[in-house]
Specification:
Order of helices and strands: HEHEHEHEHHHHHEEEHEEE
Helix content: 10-25%
Structural class: alpha/beta
Distance between the termini: 146 Å
Shape: elongated
Amino acid sequence: MAGLGDPPGGTPEGAPGGGEDEYRSVVFDESFVRAARLQEFSAQERITDHAPAVRRRKPLRRAGLSRQALVLVVLIAVAFGTAIYMGVRHPYQSPSAQRAAEPVRMTVVPLAPRGRVPGADDAGLLYERSPAAGFRTAAEGVPLPGARRTAHFSEDQVLNALTTAKNYIVRSALDPEVLGGGGVRSVRVLLAPDQLPQFDESFARPAPDGRHAPTGWLVRFDPARAELADPEIRVDGSMRAVESDASTLEVTADHTMVYALRPAGDERAGTSLFTVRRELHFRYDREDLRLHQTELVASYVQAGPLSCAEDSANHLRPLLAGQTAGTGTPAGTDPFTSDNATALCGTLAAGAQPKA
């Protein structure tokens, strides 16, 4: 006779005996039951609500982060750290600290005419008779040379330096507002912050001391003396960029500008030409390149016709058509050649003036 715990026919052949079955290793403990997605309604619930036999339970929330979420957080942190590292350490970055900008060295040499300043009613006629006949006009006369990468600077960085230098030249020597003695902010914003105190002091307290001459920073005429008779300023010159060390680019610009001027407020007066030759030296570190600003290292200016007896540090006070500089001037200097003046005042060579 079969036992109370055995099936009526006894234990099936091949099945384990002793009242044990194949599911005896499964333990339905409390945590297993609570985690079940389906739960059977009680008999009373099924009678009362005519509900289905089972109901779906909300899944239990697991405490803490899953392994996948933890891996994702780690990957995001690694990517963020890598981005910061690459941003701080540029592939061209030099480990050396950035230098403070040096004070600008500036020299302004007035060039006095030997005789009367030539004049004419037509500015175009004067240009045709002068060495500036073949010059281009305004910013077209300041073309950018080809930019080539250096050992530590990319082609884009070299182009950036050349473009900023050109912007400085155009704003400081070809802007009618600046030339007329007006605002200088358009020039100021291109300078490195370390040079702004020197720039501001130059205009607040101008002095011919080689450090604080406004005409060393830019070209401007005494508005009570002269004004532009023709906005088409003639320009010619060159620019070049070189790498001075692993963290510094240098740009040298050498340009000659020729202006047609007349007495201030007198549109019927005769026109004369005024020539300015500027050699500017710029320096750039990577912060300057990033901010599109420049450090002006040195400015060498020859300008005439001027009188050596007048101060040319604050404003240029041109000698106009028919005027003379007087006597006692030194040997001549031609701003259309590459020769440098050898005195604080030179004589404007006859060949630099328009022909009669």
